[in-house]
TrEMBL record:
Keywords: Electron transport, Heme, Iron, Membrane, Metal-binding, Transmembrane, Transmembrane helix, Transport. The lineage of its organism: Bacteria, Pseudomonadati, Bacteroidota, Cytophagia, Cytophagales. It comes from Spirosoma oryzae. Residues 235-381 form the Cytochrome b/b6 C-terminal region profile domain. This is Ubiquinol-cytochrome c reductase cytochrome b subunit. It is a multi-pass membrane protein. It comes from the Bacteria. Residues 8-219 form the Cytochrome b/b6 N-terminal region profile domain. Residues 386-463 form the Cytochrome c domain. Pfam families: Cytochrom_B_C, Cytochrome_B, Cytochrome_CBB3. Its main location: membrane. The chain crosses the membrane at residues 36-62, 89-110, 122-142, 188-211, 254-276, 312-332, 344-363. It is found in: Membrane. One of its GO terms (molecular function) is heme binding.
Length: 463
């Protein structure tokens, strides 16, 4: 028996050479002392693999069409075997990926591991950070409940405000001028084909660079990086005191990764996936959703900045952030790596963490972020006039009520419209709705003439 297995193994190795290719990777020397701080990159990778596996499982059952998506998610959650757990793992896996990508990045920054010769490791890592956020966003849209549809409306309208290329970008995102079935096909293709393919390619490159340039040794105060001598010094150091990657360093990755996966599965079983909010339809009104937690800081930031600067922030914010992150390893690719010698870097990280954390808390208690759990006024008041009734339903269905209060129901992000009909003429109302302005999205593209007239009639009646 043993000899047969051995023979099969030998045959495989002779024809493929896989072990010969993998062994040097497992045995390659890494600096000693690469301890627990180094596990977060591989933890992110474990989460990503979990996302691929559960994502394929979900795609087997999900129907990316606007009239079937919501029902297929309900089916996955309530009826499919292990469907609830599958969705739960995919959700907590996404949360884990966002979390660990952040922690990994902070670790690399604090230890200045982006300095020579690892600039490209950092750049590919920054791209992976943004791809991870984009995956979180597109994934949330695929739920195609009120929340998902609303988020895509806001995203498209915000993109549309970018000078010159905005409209084109918004059309590219939605696959047309308005949201509909074609938009959902797009989000599906982005989330399942385009961005995962980019992530695979970049993860491959990132890992190749990690092996080629070597893991950064733990920094020591008074041992600066000098590009002229660093590589030679690193080689000698490895020969003298390096340890084989497997098992001396990799066991921590394996242990921590397993704990992460167990925790995610545990949360999926005990807590379960986030509840679906109402389908994009005004007749069902009894849930309390909000954007997923990792999107909250972004929502809160946009809600808090003064309205006049928001358009600029939407455009320049991400651009400046990308430029700053890209520039970092080129602005400082040598010198001290130890955090003790770089107090301002540590201080900066603490500020960023507090800032993002505060936005998260604010987004959680929100008076500003849209309130998705509001009830339609059409269910509270029984309108005799069919136009007012249609207007009331549209006011809810088009998301106005997430931001505006009428009859004591609705969000606080925009002004209370309970007596708007007293001072505003129908014309003024139309202009405001079509053009938006301040922190309000422009609705010109997403309401047809009749819908606009009904909403204006409804608002004019609020006295
Ligand atoms: C993202 C949140 C949001 C959504 C969604 C939204 N609005 Fe607004 N709306 C605002 C904000 C913020 C203002 C204040 C704008 C300003 O400061 O100029 C506003 C202002 C208005 C005003 C002027 C009121 C005043 O006193 O200044 C009207 C009328 C209005 N919105 C109607 C609507 C209608 C109708 C819809 C749906 C088609 C809608 N809004 C959707 C946030 C929103």
């Amino acid at each position: 028996m043993k000899t047969i297995l051995r023979k099969m193994g030998d045959w495989l190795e002779d024809r493929t050479g896989l072990m010969a290719a993998i062994r040097p990777i497992l045995n390659h020397l890494v600096p000693p002392g690469a301890k627990w701080a180094y596990v977060f990159g591989s933890a992110t990778l474990f989460c990503f693999i979990l996302q691929v596996v559960t994502g394929v499982g979900l795609a087997l059952l999900y129907q990316p069409s606007s009239d079937a998506a919501y029902q297929s998610l309900q089916f996955i959650t309530d009826q499919a075997v292990f469907g609830r757990v599958l969705r739960g793992i995919h959700f907590f896996g996404a949360s884990g990926m966002v979390l660990f990508v952040g922690v990994h990045m902070i670790r690399v920054y604090i230890m200045a591991a982006y300095k020579y010769p690892r600039e490209m490791n950092w750049l590919t890592g920054v791209l992976l950070l943004f791809l991870t956020i984009i995956m979180g966003f597109t994934g949330q849209l695929l739920r195609w409940d009120a929340n998902g549809v609303w988020s895509s409306v806001v995203a498209a309208q915000n993109l549309g405000r970018i000078p010159l290329i905005g409209t084109t970008l918004a059309r590219l995102l939605l696959g047309g001028d308005t949201i509909g079935g074609q938009s959902l096909s797009r989000f599906f293709a982005y989330h399942v084909f385009l961005f995962p393919a980019l992530i695979f390619a970049l993860v491959g490159l990132h890992l190749f660079l990690v092996i080629r340039n070597g893991i950064s040794e733990p920094p020591k105060a008074g041992r600066p990086v000098d590009p002229k001598t660093y590589r030679a010094w690193y080689e000698t150091m490895l020969k003298r005191e390096g340890v084989p990657f497997w098992p001396n360093a990799a066991w921590r990755d394996a242990l921590f990764g397993s704990l992460v996966i167990l925790t995610i599965v545990g949360l999926a079983v005990v807590v379960g996936p986030p509840a679906l909010t109402q389908p994009p339809d005004p007749s069902i009104v009894d849930t309390s959703p909000e954007p997923d937690w990792y999107m909250l800081p972004i929502f809160a930031l946009f809600a808090l900045v003064p309205p006049k600067t928001e358009s600029y922030l939407i455009f320049f914010g991400p651009v400046l952030l990308v430029l700053a992150l890209f520039a970092l390893p080129f602005l400082s690719n040598r010198g001290e790596r130890s955090p003790i010698r770089r107090p301002w870097a540590v201080f900066g990280v603490i500020c960023v963490v507090i800032f993002v954390g505060a936005l998260l808390v604010i987004g959680e208690i929100e008076p500003w972020s849209p309130r998705f759990d509001t009830k339609s006024v059409a269910t509270l008041v029984s309108y005799q006039n069919p136009q007012l009734k249609r207007g009331a339903m549209l006011f809810y269905k088009k998301g106005c009520q997430y931001c505006h209060m009428v009859h004591g129901e609705g969000g606080l992000r925009g002004p209370n419209l309970s007596d708007i009909g007293r001072n505003w003429t129908a014309n003024q109302l139309t202009v405001q709705i079509v053009n938006g302005g301040g922190n309000m999205p422009a609705y010109g593209g997403s309401l047809d003439k009749d819908e606009l007239r009904d909403i204006v009639a409804f608002l004019s009646a609020q006295k």
